[in-house]
Amino acid sequence: MKSEAVWHSSISAVAANEIRVRGYRIDELMGETSFVSAIYLVLMGELPDREESRLLEAMLISSIDHGAVTPSTLAARTAASTGAPLNAALAAGVLSINRFHGGAIEDCMHVLKEGLQRAAERNIELEKAALELVHEFRHEKRRIAGLGHRLHDDDPRTRKLFSLASELGLADGGVAMMLALEGAFREIGKSLPINVDGALAALLLDLKVPVELANAFFIMARLPGLAAHIREEQTRQRPMRSIHPDALSYDGPEPRSL
Amino acid sequence: MKSEAVWHSSISAVAANEIRVRGYRIDELMGETSFVSAIYLVLMGELPDREESRLLEAMLISSIDHGAVTPSTLAARTAASTGAPLNAALAAGVLSINRFHGGAIEDCMHVLKEGLQRAAERNIELEKAALELVHEFRHEKRRIAGLGHRLHDDDPRTRKLFSLASELGLADGGVAMMLALEGAFREIGKSLPINVDGALAALLLDLKVPVELANAFFIMARLPGLAAHIREEQTRQRPMRSIHPDALSYDGPEPRSL
Amino acid sequence: MKSEAVWHSSISAVAANEIRVRGYRIDELMGETSFVSAIYLVLMGELPDREESRLLEAMLISSIDHGAVTPSTLAARTAASTGAPLNAALAAGVLSINRFHGGAIEDCMHVLKEGLQRAAERNIELEKAALELVHEFRHEKRRIAGLGHRLHDDDPRTRKLFSLASELGLADGGVAMMLALEGAFREIGKSLPINVDGALAALLLDLKVPVELANAFFIMARLPGLAAHIREEQTRQRPMRSIHPDALSYDGPEPRSL
Amino acid sequence: MKSEAVWHSSISAVAANEIRVRGYRIDELMGETSFVSAIYLVLMGELPDREESRLLEAMLISSIDHGAVTPSTLAARTAASTGAPLNAALAAGVLSINRFHGGAIEDCMHVLKEGLQRAAERNIELEKAALELVHEFRHEKRRIAGLGHRLHDDDPRTRKLFSLASELGLADGGVAMMLALEGAFREIGKSLPINVDGALAALLLDLKVPVELANAFFIMARLPGLAAHIREEQTRQRPMRSIHPDALSYDGPEPRSL
């Protein structure tokens, strides 16, 4: 083997009876910290503090499922319906998380960064930067990701995420810029409430998560939901059925409280 | 639409500004419970209790990563190296979690169930059932999944998982049967320590998780590791490189403690 | 590198300015033979003769497309609808070709082999072996793959494939056994005409293609159809639409002849 | 179902016992035309003429395989090595065909179109347009896809494709522009021979295939090779092996001629 083929990784070190993730013994992490903290550690290199960890728990829950007929769930159910094993059906679902479904988080983070940069560079208010962006996007006939939803006009996930971030002292420029964009639309007479993608974009930015990892967070969050739907498809439906998105009826537990 | 096309799902109910998972408002779950508890809820239909939740945290951490050259990581890195977007590289990794990598958990659960059933039906000791199984598998020249590891002969993850399960009062028949199998091999002169797949199989059984969901747990656990390796490949390596599994060198943080 | 890591492949040899597939220079194959012959070569190790090649052309065409709402096409369109790149949408389609969709070819080949083996071993007529199999499957309440179709009761693809195979002198035991199975059902009063999967199973058997490659033939055949649907989804539909399988209307070219 | 949900497809019309692709009865296409012509039909809407069809055969053969250690093959073999079914291993391979592997065809087509457009708009020689492009790319430190290869400096596939296109009267602006780019590099003292991606890009352009379908052609061409490698991995190698790209040794048929 030629010496130039040596390559490096800084994520895990595996030796006989000793596995370390980012320097920590995995068996020390187990029992002492949460899965969500370990997710942050493996992706970001350091453990989150207590507040960041609490916020991440809520962020990941917020996208765990959104019903049986979102595109990624339909793709996963369709694959399962043909007899695909669980991992293949999950892969079909993951392959359906893109720009127009889940990917809005990444797009929105770019807009928020652009807005914050403008405000900083030209020393202007966030509100002014937001209004400029809104006008520019409208002029180019482009939508700003993270605002508006076909179903929710007061998304309970957004409200909860922002109140929690505020309470934990973690709401920063991302949240402020996101609210400024919502306000800018209101100012020009458009009601475009912040959706869960927008809320997650703002918080990921304030948690210093790189834009390139935004989709990873959404995919990790949604995977359990996809798995549940695949299992339900396998156990409750006959194979090779034609799936009608409008013909879905919920028959799970009645509304209940913790 | 014909009426027979109506189909049911019991997982989530989505209405304007109200999203419920298994009956609970998602915004109530956020902040009040952990992501791991929500994973269990969406897959199993009910929230875990405090002890189950703690054990699940450790179980999911135990498989979060195992270095840069496991097959699923190599597949994900190879895809990333060609320019695949994050979700496609993750899918390539997930498609490489099968019978011989990750899938051992499912196979091992079947063996454990078989052993427990024999012991119950014929009212014999677990040790006796285990010895029978070991002899039968050896006679058919088949391996029992969950025992032995090419690298670890005293897997720190197994030890931690079993001590934690014991401390939390959750070690039950699955753990006992797993230990009986290890003992049966010892009795015939074979040292085949319980690996992490075997430990997870035992605990998933004791947590009443259906065998068909075992792979889902491994995939959810490993996804953050895959994402970290994909991101590292994208940022530290040149595209289209030839990846030599033996030429890997770790250059991450020094060993450290919590 | 340890010497035991050396591994072998007998498919292609690639050297500077010389690429050989199964021994033949690729640039000699180009121009002299057909893509279908090269497919057979790369998979089977030898070039097909003229008759086999003609039959393979027809076999691959027979499964090139079957409309916009088969499960693999729906999965591919769903992924494309979320913004997936072409290869990811193709992968989602390929992952939806399994036991209940496309995979029937493989299942049917197993039944045909079983029937032929029984007839040979016990020196009985194919008709008798077929009747036995039909009775056994019915007793076990199992379907025999390759017979019956929800839409076609006289599948034009089956008729064409069998007449072509006959004309080319390639119809052998596989075709005979398939017809015997259809006859056995007729004898017990069931009209279950041979579908395209059954016809392909019979012909792949008569072409000595291993059962394990049956799915590869179907996937290669269907890939162009999947690509066409993905492209159509990307160019004619808005993103993130809800795809209703019953609401499809054909607006392509009028019926025409060659 | 709401009426706005009606959607259209112009690819296939499927009715009882009648399947039409782009207007032609599929059973009429079978036997009368080639698989490659049907591929072109389903993707492009019309049958190719005799010359186009012959060229397409050679183009698809040119990319059918390139040895056992290209990234898509390694990803497919890695998945197969873990026990993945054939379609899942194929999907892992397809997901590894991207910008840096296979995707060069698409990138190169964009450059060729840009060059041809410049030459047409400003009424300049192709050579002049090519030299401008080469200078611009070098100034921006970007590579032009389709030129240069780490192994082949006189790619036999390129030579064969161009001579065949010329003989069939199908070499047009795409080929001319491609040659002009190679000449422009030569003029500035760089020997960057046209690779197979560049040759395919030129010919797809001259066949009026849309840029967005370029990857589909490469994926269709490579799928048989991927399937052959997956099958070889399943039958010749032990599961979960560590695949060393440098340790490959060819042991197939000796060099032979048609």
Oligomeric form: homotetramer
Pick out the low-confidence regions of chain A: none
Q: What fraction strand of chain A? A: 5-15%
Rounded radius of gyration of chain A (Å): 21 Å
Largest sheet of chain A: 3 strands, antiparallel
**How many helical elements of chain A?**
11
Strand order of the largest sheet of chain A: 2-3-4
End-to-end distance of chain A: 59 Å
Q: Largest interface by residue count? A: A-B, 108 and 108 residues
Structural class of the helix and strand makeup of chain A? mainly alpha
**Helix-residue proportion of chain A:** 55-70%
Q: Tell how many strands the DSSP assignment of chain A holds.
A: 5
Tertiary shape of chain A: globular
Spell out the helices and strands of chain A N to C.
Answer: EEEEHHHHHHHHHHHE
- What's the average pLDDT of chain A? 95
Gist of the model:
Four copies of one chain form a homotetramer. Chain A is mainly alpha-helical and 258 residues long. In chain A, 56% of the residues lie in helices and 6% in strands.
List the helices and strands and how they pair.
Four copies of one chain form a homotetramer.
Chain A: E1 7-9, E2 12-15, E3 18-21, E4 24-25, H1 26-32, H2 35-44, H3 50-62, H4 71-81, H5 86-94, H6 104-122, H7 126-139, H8 156-167, H9 173-187, H10 196-206, H11 214-236, E5 248-250
Antiparallel strand pairs in A: 2-3, 3-4
Question: Could you characterize the architecture of this molecule?
Answer:
The structure is a homotetramer of 258-residue chains. Chain A is mainly alpha-helical. Chain A contains 11 helices and 5 strands, in the order E-E-E-E-H-H-H-H-H-H-H-H-H-H-H-E. Chain A has helices at 26-32, 35-44, 50-62, 71-81, 86-94, 104-122, 126-139, 156-167, 173-187, 196-206, 214-236; strands at 7-9, 12-15, 18-21, 24-25, 248-250. Chain A has a 3-stranded antiparallel sheet with strand order 2-3-4. In chain A, a hairpin with a 2-residue loop joins strand 2 and strand 3. In chain A, helix 9 (173-187) packs antiparallel against helix 10. Chain A is globular and about 55 Å long. The termini of chain A are far apart. The relative contact order of chain A is 0.15. At the A-B interface, strand 1, strand 2, strand 3, strand 4 and helix 1 of A face strand 1, strand 2, strand 3, strand 4 and helix 1 of B. Strand 5 (248-250) of chain A pairs parallel with strand 1 (7-9) of chain B, so a sheet runs across the interface.
